[in-house]
From TrEMBL:
It is found in: Membrane. GO terms for cellular component: peroxisomal membrane. The gene is LOC114783350. It comes from Denticeps clupeoides (denticle herring). It comes from the Eukaryota. Belongs to the peroxisomal membrane protein PXMP2/4 family. Residues 1-18 form the signal peptide. The keyword Membrane applies. InterPro entries: Mpv17_PMP22. The chain crosses the membrane at residues 88-105, 145-163. It is a multi-pass membrane protein. The lineage of its organism: Eukaryota, Metazoa, Chordata, Craniata, Vertebrata. Keywords: Membrane, Signal, Transmembrane, Transmembrane helix. This is Peroxisomal membrane protein 2.
Length: 168
């Protein structure tokens, strides 16, 4: 239980730090574009933090625990199997869940979610695979299970800083 709490809190804190860092690198305090229901985009960082704290942290914690049980290090080719499970099952589902929860938190309609998925999901998933695959290989095969969520969050912090620096 302590590991789960640390995963959740760590996800929330590092998400907040990533937001502060990306805004500092962008040189702006907030964006004022509004959503269809009047939810200011400055609320999006709070929503992302909520998602990290309440969804990404716990889901990742349990997924990494499950990997240890389903694919122990004693199993042949466990490294490749873990990576394939992460990249082809977990990453697509978590990204879809992220899109759904952000849609709900922003007060958008189901049609907005469907349009967002059609418009952005494949590109986001492809970028996820390109960027995160090497880090996830190291994470799920070499980082001790109790530190995997933390490792992912630290990598995400640098990823957000990279995106904010304009080298996207």
């Amino acid at each position: 239980m302590c590991g789960l709490i640390l995963a959740c809190v760590g996800s929330g804190v590092l998400s907040a730090l990533g937001n502060v860092l990306s805004q500092a690198l962008e040189g702006r305090r907030s964006v004022q574009a509004s959503s269809p229901l009047g939810v200011e985009s400055r609320d999006v960082p709070h929503h992302r933090r909520s998602v990290s704290l309440c969804i990404t942290g716990p889901c990742s914690h349990h997924f990494y625990q499950m990997l240890e049980v389903l694919l122990p290090a004693s199993q042949p080719h466990f490294m490749v199997k873990r990576l394939l499970l992460d990249r082809l099952l977990y990453a697509p589902l978590l990204l879809l869940l992220f899109f759904l929860v952000m849609n709900v938190l922003e007060g958008r309609r189901w049609q907005d979610f469907a349009q967002k998925v059609r418009r952005d999901y494949l590109a986001a998933l492809t970028m996820n695979w390109k960027v995160w695959t090497p880090f996830q290989f190291v994470n799920i095969n070499y980082v001790p299970v109790q530190f995997r969520v933390l490792f992912s969050n630290v990598v995400a912090l640098f990823w957000y800083a990279y995106l904010a620096s304009g080298r996207k």
